Amino acid sequence: MQASEVIVVGGGLLGAAIAYGAAKAGAHVTVLDQGDIAHRASRGNFGLVWVSGKGDKAPHYSRWCCDAATAWPALAQELLDLTGVDVALQQSGGLHLCMTEADLQAREATLKGISNAIGGVPFEMLDHAALKALVPSIGPKVAGASFGLLDGHCNPLKLLYALHAGLKARDVRVVSNVDVSHVSSGGNDFEVESRDGRSWRASRVVVAAGLGTKDLAAQVGLHAPVKPNRGQMLITERLRPFLPYPTAGVRQTDEGSVQLGNSFEDVGLDNGTTASTIESIAKDVTTAFPILASVRLVRAWGCLRVLTPDSLPIYQESASCPGAFVATSHSGVSLAAIHAGVLGPWMAGLAAAPQGISEFAGDRFLGPNRRISNAFLDAYAHAH
Protein backbone atom coordinates (compact mmCIF):
# COMPACT_ATOMS: atom_id res chain seq x y z
CA MET A 1 0.00 0.00 0.00
CA GLN A 2 1.15 3.54 -0.76
CA ALA A 3 2.16 5.83 2.08
CA SER A 4 -0.48 8.41 2.93
CA GLU A 5 -0.74 11.75 4.68
CA VAL A 6 -2.53 11.40 8.02
CA ILE A 7 -3.67 14.04 10.49
CA VAL A 8 -4.29 12.83 14.04
CA VAL A 9 -6.36 15.25 16.10
CA GLY A 10 -5.25 14.66 19.68
CA GLY A 11 -1.84 14.12 21.23
CA GLY A 12 -2.79 12.18 24.34
CA LEU A 13 -2.03 8.52 24.92
CA LEU A 14 -4.60 7.38 22.35
CA GLY A 15 -3.72 9.82 19.58
CA ALA A 16 0.01 9.52 20.18
CA ALA A 17 -0.12 5.70 20.04
CA ILE A 18 -2.13 5.72 16.80
CA ALA A 19 0.18 8.31 15.26
CA TYR A 20 3.24 6.33 16.35
CA GLY A 21 1.88 3.13 14.77
CA ALA A 22 0.89 4.93 11.58
CA ALA A 23 4.34 6.48 11.22
CA LYS A 24 6.06 3.19 11.94
CA ALA A 25 4.00 1.61 9.15
CA GLY A 26 5.23 4.28 6.73
CA ALA A 27 2.66 7.07 6.81
CA HIS A 28 3.47 10.77 6.86
CA VAL A 29 1.79 11.94 10.06
CA THR A 30 0.88 15.27 11.60
CA VAL A 31 -0.40 15.37 15.18
CA LEU A 32 -2.46 18.37 16.27
CA ASP A 33 -2.21 18.60 20.05
CA GLN A 34 -4.43 20.92 22.05
CA GLY A 35 -1.75 21.55 24.65
CA ASP A 36 -2.17 22.50 28.26
CA ILE A 37 -5.73 23.80 27.87
CA ALA A 38 -6.85 20.19 27.31
CA HIS A 39 -8.31 18.16 30.17
CA ARG A 40 -5.47 15.67 29.72
CA ALA A 41 -6.82 12.33 30.89
CA SER A 42 -3.44 10.99 29.79
CA ARG A 43 -1.74 12.85 32.63
CA GLY A 44 -4.14 11.80 35.36
CA ASN A 45 -4.83 8.11 34.93
CA PHE A 46 -3.94 5.12 37.08
CA GLY A 47 -1.38 3.47 34.81
CA LEU A 48 -2.81 -0.05 34.78
CA VAL A 49 -2.23 -2.58 32.02
CA TRP A 50 -5.33 -4.58 32.78
CA VAL A 51 -7.27 -7.52 31.39
CA SER A 52 -9.08 -9.21 34.30
CA GLY A 53 -12.81 -8.56 34.40
CA LYS A 54 -12.87 -6.56 31.19
CA GLY A 55 -15.42 -7.55 28.59
CA ASP A 56 -18.08 -9.15 30.74
CA LYS A 57 -20.87 -9.69 28.18
CA ALA A 58 -18.58 -8.25 25.47
CA PRO A 59 -16.21 -11.02 24.31
CA HIS A 60 -14.81 -8.90 21.48
CA TYR A 61 -13.51 -6.42 24.06
CA SER A 62 -12.02 -9.21 26.19
CA ARG A 63 -10.08 -10.48 23.18
CA TRP A 64 -8.96 -6.94 22.33
CA CYS A 65 -7.64 -6.44 25.88
CA CYS A 66 -5.83 -9.78 25.87
CA ASP A 67 -4.19 -9.02 22.53
CA ALA A 68 -3.09 -5.62 23.83
CA ALA A 69 -1.64 -7.04 27.04
CA THR A 70 0.25 -9.70 25.10
CA ALA A 71 1.73 -7.06 22.80
CA TRP A 72 2.72 -4.69 25.61
CA PRO A 73 6.23 -6.03 26.42
CA ALA A 74 7.31 -5.62 22.80
CA LEU A 75 6.06 -2.02 22.74
CA ALA A 76 7.87 -1.19 25.98
CA GLN A 77 11.12 -2.66 24.66
CA GLU A 78 10.72 -0.91 21.30
CA LEU A 79 10.20 2.48 22.95
CA LEU A 80 13.22 1.90 25.20
CA ASP A 81 15.42 0.98 22.24
CA LEU A 82 14.20 3.89 20.11
CA THR A 83 13.98 6.68 22.70
CA GLY A 84 15.90 5.52 25.77
CA VAL A 85 12.77 5.98 27.89
CA ASP A 86 11.88 3.12 30.25
CA VAL A 87 8.12 3.18 30.82
CA ALA A 88 8.56 0.98 33.94
CA LEU A 89 6.32 -1.84 32.73
CA GLN A 90 5.73 -4.50 35.38
CA GLN A 91 3.50 -7.26 34.08
CA SER A 92 3.83 -10.10 36.56
CA GLY A 93 0.15 -10.11 37.50
CA GLY A 94 -2.45 -7.95 39.22
CA LEU A 95 -4.91 -8.30 42.10
CA HIS A 96 -8.61 -7.51 42.39
CA LEU A 97 -9.38 -7.44 46.11
CA CYS A 98 -12.65 -8.87 47.45
CA MET A 99 -13.91 -7.89 50.88
CA THR A 100 -16.43 -10.72 51.39
CA GLU A 101 -16.80 -14.37 50.46
CA ALA A 102 -19.80 -13.42 48.33
CA ASP A 103 -17.65 -10.95 46.42
CA LEU A 104 -15.06 -13.67 45.83
CA GLN A 105 -17.66 -16.07 44.47
CA ALA A 106 -19.16 -13.41 42.21
CA ARG A 107 -15.73 -12.41 40.94
CA GLU A 108 -14.82 -16.00 40.14
CA ALA A 109 -18.08 -16.50 38.24
CA THR A 110 -17.45 -13.36 36.20
CA LEU A 111 -13.89 -14.30 35.32
CA LYS A 112 -14.87 -17.87 34.41
CA GLY A 113 -17.57 -16.54 32.13
CA ILE A 114 -15.16 -14.22 30.33
CA SER A 115 -12.49 -16.91 30.03
CA ASN A 116 -14.94 -19.48 28.66
CA ALA A 117 -16.31 -16.98 26.15
CA ILE A 118 -12.97 -16.28 24.47
CA GLY A 119 -11.10 -19.51 25.04
CA GLY A 120 -9.02 -18.71 28.08
CA VAL A 121 -7.93 -15.74 30.18
CA PRO A 122 -5.48 -16.91 32.86
CA PHE A 123 -6.43 -16.12 36.46
CA GLU A 124 -6.31 -17.63 39.94
CA MET A 125 -8.59 -17.18 42.92
CA LEU A 126 -6.87 -16.59 46.26
CA ASP A 127 -8.42 -16.96 49.70
CA HIS A 128 -7.17 -14.75 52.51
CA ALA A 129 -4.32 -17.07 53.50
CA ALA A 130 -3.06 -17.42 49.93
CA LEU A 131 -3.34 -13.67 49.37
CA LYS A 132 -1.42 -12.90 52.58
CA ALA A 133 1.32 -15.29 51.53
CA LEU A 134 1.63 -13.30 48.30
CA VAL A 135 1.18 -9.84 49.89
CA PRO A 136 2.02 -9.94 53.61
CA SER A 137 0.79 -6.37 54.15
CA ILE A 138 -2.83 -7.22 53.28
CA GLY A 139 -5.38 -6.40 55.98
CA PRO A 140 -7.39 -9.01 57.93
CA LYS A 141 -10.73 -7.76 56.59
CA VAL A 142 -9.90 -8.69 52.99
CA ALA A 143 -11.52 -12.02 52.14
CA GLY A 144 -9.29 -12.76 49.18
CA ALA A 145 -8.61 -11.71 45.60
CA SER A 146 -8.48 -12.72 42.00
CA PHE A 147 -5.01 -12.75 40.49
CA GLY A 148 -4.84 -11.94 36.78
CA LEU A 149 -1.70 -13.29 35.20
CA LEU A 150 -1.76 -10.88 32.24
CA ASP A 151 -2.27 -7.78 34.38
CA GLY A 152 0.31 -5.21 35.35
CA HIS A 153 1.10 -1.49 35.34
CA CYS A 154 3.51 1.11 34.04
CA ASN A 155 4.38 4.75 34.57
CA PRO A 156 1.76 6.54 32.41
CA LEU A 157 3.65 9.85 32.33
CA LYS A 158 6.76 8.08 31.08
CA LEU A 159 4.61 6.26 28.50
CA LEU A 160 3.24 9.55 27.17
CA TYR A 161 6.76 10.99 27.08
CA ALA A 162 8.13 7.90 25.33
CA LEU A 163 5.39 7.96 22.69
CA HIS A 164 6.07 11.62 21.93
CA ALA A 165 9.81 10.95 21.81
CA GLY A 166 9.00 8.09 19.45
CA LEU A 167 6.96 10.43 17.27
CA LYS A 168 9.94 12.74 16.99
CA ALA A 169 12.24 9.81 16.18
CA ARG A 170 9.87 8.71 13.41
CA ASP A 171 9.69 12.22 11.90
CA VAL A 172 6.12 12.90 12.91
CA ARG A 173 5.18 16.57 12.87
CA VAL A 174 3.63 17.51 16.23
CA VAL A 175 1.94 20.90 16.37
CA SER A 176 1.12 22.05 19.90
CA ASN A 177 -1.49 24.47 21.19
CA VAL A 178 -3.97 23.67 18.42
CA ASP A 179 -7.61 23.99 19.43
CA VAL A 180 -9.34 22.26 16.51
CA SER A 181 -12.77 23.63 15.69
CA HIS A 182 -13.68 22.04 12.38
CA VAL A 183 -12.99 18.95 10.30
CA SER A 184 -14.36 18.82 6.74
CA SER A 185 -14.11 16.62 3.69
CA GLY A 186 -13.48 18.10 0.29
CA GLY A 187 -12.44 16.32 -2.85
CA ASN A 188 -9.72 13.78 -2.12
CA ASP A 189 -8.63 15.11 1.24
CA PHE A 190 -9.69 16.59 4.57
CA GLU A 191 -9.21 20.03 5.99
CA VAL A 192 -8.73 20.54 9.72
CA GLU A 193 -9.13 24.07 11.04
CA SER A 194 -8.21 25.58 14.40
CA ARG A 195 -10.01 28.33 16.25
CA ASP A 196 -7.19 30.77 15.55
CA GLY A 197 -7.53 30.38 11.78
CA ARG A 198 -4.80 27.86 10.96
CA SER A 199 -5.56 24.87 8.76
CA TRP A 200 -4.02 21.58 7.65
CA ARG A 201 -4.86 19.12 4.87
CA ALA A 202 -4.33 15.38 4.49
CA SER A 203 -5.87 12.41 2.71
CA ARG A 204 -6.83 10.83 6.04
CA VAL A 205 -7.84 12.17 9.44
CA VAL A 206 -8.20 10.51 12.83
CA VAL A 207 -10.27 12.19 15.52
CA ALA A 208 -8.84 11.11 18.88
CA ALA A 209 -9.54 14.30 20.75
CA GLY A 210 -10.71 13.06 24.13
CA LEU A 211 -13.77 14.94 25.35
CA GLY A 212 -13.73 17.00 22.15
CA THR A 213 -14.24 13.89 20.04
CA LYS A 214 -18.05 13.94 19.98
CA ASP A 215 -18.45 17.25 18.19
CA LEU A 216 -15.52 16.84 15.79
CA ALA A 217 -16.48 13.29 14.81
CA ALA A 218 -20.02 14.37 13.99
CA GLN A 219 -18.62 16.77 11.36
CA VAL A 220 -17.43 13.78 9.31
CA GLY A 221 -20.47 11.57 9.88
CA LEU A 222 -19.31 9.62 12.93
CA HIS A 223 -21.23 9.03 16.15
CA ALA A 224 -19.10 9.17 19.31
CA PRO A 225 -21.28 10.00 22.34
CA VAL A 226 -18.55 10.46 24.95
CA LYS A 227 -18.96 12.22 28.27
CA PRO A 228 -16.68 13.00 31.21
CA ASN A 229 -16.48 10.99 34.41
CA ARG A 230 -14.27 12.20 37.24
CA GLY A 231 -11.82 10.07 39.17
CA GLN A 232 -9.92 11.35 42.18
CA MET A 233 -6.50 10.05 43.16
CA LEU A 234 -3.97 10.40 45.95
CA ILE A 235 -0.21 9.99 46.06
CA THR A 236 1.74 9.09 49.19
CA GLU A 237 5.30 9.76 50.15
CA ARG A 238 7.84 7.29 48.84
CA LEU A 239 7.96 4.00 50.72
CA ARG A 240 10.08 0.91 50.73
CA PRO A 241 8.63 -1.73 48.39
CA PHE A 242 5.70 -3.53 50.03
CA LEU A 243 3.21 -4.13 47.22
CA PRO A 244 4.66 -6.30 44.43
CA TYR A 245 1.43 -6.38 42.40
CA PRO A 246 -0.97 -3.59 41.46
CA THR A 247 -4.62 -3.67 42.44
CA ALA A 248 -7.54 -1.84 40.86
CA GLY A 249 -7.27 0.93 43.45
CA VAL A 250 -3.76 0.76 44.95
CA ARG A 251 -0.41 0.45 43.25
CA GLN A 252 3.15 1.21 44.28
CA THR A 253 4.88 3.10 41.50
CA ASP A 254 8.35 2.50 40.14
CA GLU A 255 9.47 5.54 42.14
CA GLY A 256 8.23 4.16 45.48
CA SER A 257 5.17 6.35 46.03
CA VAL A 258 1.76 4.72 46.32
CA GLN A 259 -1.07 5.77 44.04
CA LEU A 260 -4.56 5.44 45.48
CA GLY A 261 -7.95 5.97 43.90
CA ASN A 262 -11.05 4.28 42.62
CA SER A 263 -13.80 6.88 42.37
CA PHE A 264 -16.34 7.45 39.57
CA GLU A 265 -18.28 10.70 39.61
CA ASP A 266 -20.70 12.20 37.09
CA VAL A 267 -19.91 15.89 37.67
CA GLY A 268 -19.50 17.26 34.17
CA LEU A 269 -16.23 19.03 33.43
CA ASP A 270 -15.28 19.57 37.08
CA ASN A 271 -11.87 17.96 37.61
CA GLY A 272 -11.45 19.16 41.17
CA THR A 273 -11.12 17.20 44.40
CA THR A 274 -13.50 16.82 47.35
CA ALA A 275 -12.76 16.06 50.98
CA SER A 276 -15.51 13.43 51.14
CA THR A 277 -14.14 11.39 48.24
CA ILE A 278 -10.55 11.66 49.46
CA GLU A 279 -11.71 10.47 52.87
CA SER A 280 -13.60 7.55 51.31
CA ILE A 281 -10.58 6.49 49.26
CA ALA A 282 -8.31 6.68 52.30
CA LYS A 283 -10.74 4.63 54.39
CA ASP A 284 -11.01 1.87 51.79
CA VAL A 285 -7.27 1.76 51.24
CA THR A 286 -6.31 1.57 54.90
CA THR A 287 -8.83 -1.22 55.40
CA ALA A 288 -7.11 -3.20 52.67
CA PHE A 289 -3.59 -2.16 53.67
CA PRO A 290 -3.39 -1.05 57.33
CA ILE A 291 0.30 -0.27 56.79
CA LEU A 292 -0.79 2.87 54.94
CA ALA A 293 -2.74 4.37 57.84
CA SER A 294 0.22 6.41 59.08
CA VAL A 295 1.68 7.32 55.69
CA ARG A 296 1.84 10.95 54.61
CA LEU A 297 -0.19 12.03 51.57
CA VAL A 298 1.65 14.48 49.32
CA ARG A 299 -0.73 15.13 46.46
CA ALA A 300 -4.35 14.75 45.36
CA TRP A 301 -5.96 15.48 42.02
CA GLY A 302 -9.05 14.86 39.93
CA CYS A 303 -9.06 13.82 36.29
CA LEU A 304 -11.76 13.28 33.71
CA ARG A 305 -12.19 9.92 32.03
CA VAL A 306 -13.58 9.87 28.50
CA LEU A 307 -16.42 7.35 28.69
CA THR A 308 -18.89 6.02 26.14
CA PRO A 309 -22.37 4.88 27.27
CA ASP A 310 -21.15 1.27 27.68
CA SER A 311 -17.56 2.26 28.61
CA LEU A 312 -16.14 0.29 25.65
CA PRO A 313 -14.00 1.95 22.96
CA ILE A 314 -15.26 3.41 19.71
CA TYR A 315 -13.19 2.80 16.57
CA GLN A 316 -14.79 3.46 13.19
CA GLU A 317 -14.24 4.75 9.67
CA SER A 318 -16.85 7.11 8.34
CA ALA A 319 -19.19 5.71 5.69
CA SER A 320 -20.06 9.17 4.38
CA CYS A 321 -16.48 10.48 4.49
CA PRO A 322 -14.14 7.53 3.81
CA GLY A 323 -10.68 8.17 5.21
CA ALA A 324 -12.05 9.84 8.34
CA PHE A 325 -11.81 7.83 11.56
CA VAL A 326 -12.79 8.19 15.17
CA ALA A 327 -10.99 6.59 18.11
CA THR A 328 -11.89 6.95 21.76
CA SER A 329 -11.15 4.76 24.77
CA HIS A 330 -10.74 5.29 28.50
CA SER A 331 -8.06 2.54 28.49
CA GLY A 332 -5.30 4.53 26.85
CA VAL A 333 -2.61 2.74 28.86
CA SER A 334 -3.96 -0.81 28.78
CA LEU A 335 -4.60 -0.70 25.04
CA ALA A 336 -1.58 1.36 23.96
CA ALA A 337 0.16 -1.55 22.26
CA ILE A 338 -2.82 -2.48 20.10
CA HIS A 339 -3.63 1.15 19.36
CA ALA A 340 -0.12 1.54 17.97
CA GLY A 341 0.31 -1.87 16.39
CA VAL A 342 -3.16 -2.39 14.91
CA LEU A 343 -5.15 0.86 14.77
CA GLY A 344 -2.27 3.03 13.53
CA PRO A 345 -1.55 1.07 10.34
CA TRP A 346 -5.27 0.52 9.62
CA MET A 347 -6.26 4.15 10.04
CA ALA A 348 -3.29 5.19 7.89
CA GLY A 349 -4.56 2.97 5.09
CA LEU A 350 -1.52 0.71 5.32
CA ALA A 351 -3.24 -2.40 6.71
CA ALA A 352 -6.59 -4.09 6.34
CA ALA A 353 -9.35 -3.41 8.83
CA PRO A 354 -8.83 -5.50 11.99
CA GLN A 355 -11.06 -8.52 12.29
CA GLY A 356 -14.22 -7.71 14.24
CA ILE A 357 -13.52 -3.97 14.38
CA SER A 358 -17.11 -3.21 13.34
CA GLU A 359 -18.25 -4.31 16.81
CA PHE A 360 -16.59 -1.16 18.19
CA ALA A 361 -18.47 1.19 15.86
CA GLY A 362 -20.22 4.13 17.49
CA ASP A 363 -23.34 3.23 15.51
CA ARG A 364 -24.08 0.64 18.20
CA PHE A 365 -25.60 3.46 20.24
CA LEU A 366 -28.10 4.34 17.52
CA GLY A 367 -31.49 2.78 16.85
CA PRO A 368 -33.93 0.79 18.98
CA ASN A 369 -31.37 -1.89 19.92
CA ARG A 370 -28.75 0.56 21.13
CA ARG A 371 -26.55 -0.47 24.05
CA ILE A 372 -27.07 1.44 27.27
CA SER A 373 -25.59 -0.89 29.91
CA ASN A 374 -22.30 0.32 31.40
CA ALA A 375 -20.60 -2.67 33.00
CA PHE A 376 -17.64 -0.52 34.08
CA LEU A 377 -19.72 1.80 36.24
CA ASP A 378 -22.16 -0.93 37.26
CA ALA A 379 -19.28 -2.93 38.77
CA TYR A 380 -18.11 0.10 40.74
CA ALA A 381 -21.63 0.78 42.01
CA HIS A 382 -21.97 -2.86 43.13
CA ALA A 383 -18.67 -2.69 45.03
CA HIS A 384 -19.76 0.47 46.84
Written account of the structure:
With 384 residues, the protein is of the alpha+beta class. It folds into 3 domains: 5-82 and 156-226 and 309-383, FAD/NAD(P)-binding domain; 94-149, no CATH class; 227-307, D-Amino Acid Oxidase, subunit A, domain 2 (D-Amino Acid Oxidase, Chain A, domain 2, 2-Layer Sandwich), CATH 3.30.9.10. Helix content is 31%, strand content 23%. The chain has helices spanning 13-25, 59-83, 101-118, 128-134, 156-169, 213-218, 275-288, 336-347, 375-383, and strands spanning 5-9, 28-32, 48-49, 94-98, 123-127, 144-148, 152-153, 173-175, 180-186, 189-194, 199-202, 204-207, 227-236, 250-252, 258-260, 297-307, 314-317, 324-328. The strands form 5 sheets. A 6-stranded mixed β-sheet has the order 8-2-1-12-18-17. The chain has a 4-stranded antiparallel β-sheet with strand order 14-15-13-16, with helices on one face. Helix 1 (13-25) links the parallel strand 1 and strand 2. Helix 2 (59-83) packs across helix 5 and helix 2 (59-83) packs across helix 8. The radius of gyration is 21 Å and the shape is globular. Residues 379-384 have low confidence and may be disordered.
